[in-house]
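Course assignment 3, question 2. Fill in each field.
Student: A.L.
Task: Predict the tertiary structure for the chain below.
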Amino acid sequence: MNQNISTEWSKTERIIFRLAFCYLVFYFLFLSNYFVSFFPFLEKAQSPLQYISDSFVGFVNRLFIHKEYEANIYTGAGDTSWFCIAIFSYFVMAILATIVWTIFDKRNNYQKLFICLQVYSRYYLAFVLFLYGFGKLFGAQFFDPTPINLIQPLGNIDHHALLWTFMGASKLYNFFGGLVEVIAGALLLFRRSTTLGALIAIATLINVLMLDIGYDTLVKAFAAHFIMIGFFILSPDVKRLLNFFLLNKNTSLAANPFTTSNKKLRWVKHSLKFILIAYVVFTSVKVSVKISDNYLKPYFGSIDGIYEIKEFNRSQQSLQQISTDTISWKKIAINKSGEMAVQYMNDSVAYYDLKVDTTTKSLALSSWNDSTFNSNLHYTFSSPDEYLFEGPYKNDTIRFISKKIDLNNFPLLKDKGKVKWIYW
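Answer field:
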């Protein structure tokens, strides 16, 4: 878009802006609620919009698609059938709105309207980058590999879990990624550094999108929208950037024609802006630190971890530990999130939901795939580093002595955070 207010936009520029404006407004109103993370009071305004969106998407689904879909939008997972139908629906609505707008509106440019939407987009993208950036800086997005991740063979890990394990295994890469996102967000908040901030944000988000696509995560659609918003912010400078970097032509800096001339109003505007930015940064850091602290604090009385089984008894009979055995247990792993995995002697793994009662020292197991299964194991400390587990399991009674493994002895975690510049 041309930022010179006295210049008439071409017909193509006006149509592209109308379409981008309509779709972005639909997206901000109905498809994204990231701002609720910073401003909880917006949830009351978001609820009726969510109801309208659910009703509209449900109508489109019943009319054209006739398939079951996830009904509720959720900022942590955009790759749902609901979101796909919503994207299609609002894009079609944006096209129809653009056609009507083009027929009845004959203005030469939409400079003021563009500036307003660009400012909102800048702050939106900056705050999203803060949310994810500070999450990486304070270890709230990617954690250390879980006990369950550590005991299972690499080939048994799905792509999504592999990405989270890969990212969580490196503090340095997390810090670097988070720092770049925070810097890009900070640059977007100021008019003079918007172009640089948009370029860094787009480059960073393209890398994020390729990781999401390559490892098949559930947030590909959101990452793609963030990149689209970045290009919208950058759009006034596209021609200038092409002339400077590719065509080797002279170019000029873009100027914002809408500035506050009144010094008092300018002071008030800058003060409010500072307060808003400080609040969002404080909230992002606070949320990240809280998540990180909750992850690091002991759960279940420190019963979480990996246990290597030294002696396994089933139905009061000691079973010989044979590598091809599909009955005897080799290891168990307990996650802080309330999951337990049993690794058999042949390295196959069974997974269970888990509830721990530290008062009675009991583990209540339930199966992900079998609603009729339940088991309740009791544990005691036979020595400082040995644990005795016993109780009913399926149609038998099991009893085993195990030794808790120090997770820092695993090669993946042993040298975490260290960099070796020379290998001998």
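Instructor remarks: Strands lie at 305-314, 317-318, 329-335, 339-344, 349-357, 362-367, 374-383, 386-393, 396-405. The first strand starts at residue 305 and ends at 314.
Grade: pending
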